[in-house]
Write a structure and sequence with these properties.
The structure is a homodimer of 357-residue chains.
Chain A (H helix, E strand, L loop, with lengths): L8 E5 L8 H13 L4 E6 L1 H10 L1 H6 E5 L10 H8 L4 H10 L5 E4 L3 H12 L9 E6 L6 E4 L9 H18 L6 E5 L10 H12 L5 E6 L11 E3 L2 H28 L1 H21 L7 E4 L4 E4 L6 H17 L1 H10 L3 H11 L5
Parallel strand pairs in A: 1-2, 1-4, 2-3, 4-11, 6-9, 7-8, 7-9
Antiparallel strand pairs in A: 5-6, 5-10, 10-11
Chain lengths: 357, 357
Amino acid sequence: MAIRRNIPTVAVDAMGGDDAPGAIIAGINQCLKEEQPFKVLLHGDEQQLEPFLDAYPLVREASTVKHADIAITMDETLSQALRRGRKTSSMWNAISDLNEGNAQMAVSAGNTGALLAMSNLILGTMEGIERPALAVLFPSVRSDVVFLDVGANLRPSSLQLAQFAIMGAAYARMILGIETPRVALLNIGIEEVKGTKAIRDAAQWLQNANLPMEFHGFVEGNDLTNGLCDVIVTGGFTGNVALKTAEGAADFIAYLMRSIIKRSMLARFGYLFMRDAFDMLWRKMEPQEFNGGVMLGLNRLVVKSHGHATSTGFSSALGVALEMSNLGLVDHVKSDLQNVDLQALETQANATNSMDE
Amino acid sequence: MAIRRNIPTVAVDAMGGDDAPGAIIAGINQCLKEEQPFKVLLHGDEQQLEPFLDAYPLVREASTVKHADIAITMDETLSQALRRGRKTSSMWNAISDLNEGNAQMAVSAGNTGALLAMSNLILGTMEGIERPALAVLFPSVRSDVVFLDVGANLRPSSLQLAQFAIMGAAYARMILGIETPRVALLNIGIEEVKGTKAIRDAAQWLQNANLPMEFHGFVEGNDLTNGLCDVIVTGGFTGNVALKTAEGAADFIAYLMRSIIKRSMLARFGYLFMRDAFDMLWRKMEPQEFNGGVMLGLNRLVVKSHGHATSTGFSSALGVALEMSNLGLVDHVKSDLQNVDLQALETQANATNSMDE
């Protein structure tokens, strides 16, 4: 019985994402089989969940179903979602469970804007942090890179960008084990004069502040994958587009390779010997395998899965949540932030008060 | 002698880009050898050009050197560049040559902001177009996709985004031969409520306007390469990052593949038979091979080469300029625009006047 106390509990919004609740429950099943044991507080429409729980007895066993009348849809505006979903939706209820300590983490594949707003309202942000940012681990030639924001704040201010950089560094310190992470702002050129005023201001502050990181300055899109930096910071609009563009480029190259192989007899023969190598490559390139973004800056651990996530994708997002919970991500970032003079940054920022325009 | 009249003339800014003037002159040499014959008005510092012209006699023969004291650097601000470079820089002079009809096109690998501003000042925009946009052809699983803006206007207004869409459609009609191009706006989700106000407004107008295109609505980053649309429109900041991110992803995959092959004896054996297929793939993935963005919306043809362009990259940009000149791009776009009620669009836009924020 002693061991059961250590089994973590995940609050899952079973109704969020394009293929909910089917892909969500199949994803929980996959994660239960492949990763560690965990308990689930399964928020959603009981009637809709029931047949899937029949299909996946492992999930039924691990879960407590918590009925919610409302499911937030992907095409709702923020105000619609908050009006309809406050205290009644599976998303709201999952975050509330987390807030009340019934779970150690919450995972949703639902509407990003709504998830961010509800998390903000219910859980609040860490002291000194204006807005949470969505951070992912992006593969590179050296090791993974912490990339944020990938969709939470479309056009952050310079102060917010600087805060993202500090949170990203704290994340990298924990997950990549690098004492002094190398941090950069994503821009359209590496020269100091490039980019919007918000980015240039953020760069100036990060350059001059005494922070536990090495501020590298600006990088460009192609630097995401070349291992130059450990943390790359941008606004949520551009970050989201960059992330999905990289996924699309990988798909495109896989398509090209397959069509070239199909056309050449010689290449088809060679492929027989290279199949294992290619299988490894396809796996490395499969975005569902590294799905799961952390909402950095909240007082509790919320993980956002891609809205298009398959069961494999949702399982991967659950895996991220479990790993970050085991590592104590939120506490790590919080304690790191206590060593940073965020107030000084804010004073500087308010003096300029530039928006990303 | 009759045939010489048809040889086009290119005004080249020989001092722009990271490896100027060496890579520029080597690029002209490569293009002269591989493409059609053309004449060059070579703008730059005579003393710096001289040794390279010694090294490339083919370029010397095709060129008239036009000395300029000033070279605009990559790290100059717009106001610095205009103050220093007005009427004295190789960039300014190359565009002036184009304006005076001494050349049919101008090509520069220099500072994008300066090139845009000088082109705007000297050549002016087409009637009804507020700002030119930088358009590239992006490879996809179906055919090339017209992608704009990739760096000219960091945060365009909704009106400007709509104008980019109309110009992109005109470009696609000419270069892809599609009568009714499918046009989309790049966003962080396909739902109508997603994105900034500027994007949503632009979408609404494009949806309701009677335009010679099929407006598809919103697409995401991964739709750049899947052939869903013929024209994809975004602001210059995000477009630039997306373009370079795709390049970086391609490099990363090539790196992964090489390292997997290196580790496996079997794969190395298979590779012997697949070498030709891989060579074809590397070529398709090489960004220098499809370098060269067109400044759409100017009254004359200006092509921007990547600042990091090698000689192959600059040769490719020259090839784009020659092809677009042969096809009569500027006249095509102009005549297409005459069939569109840009005034109505502007009236609508002024009523809302949303900036991308």
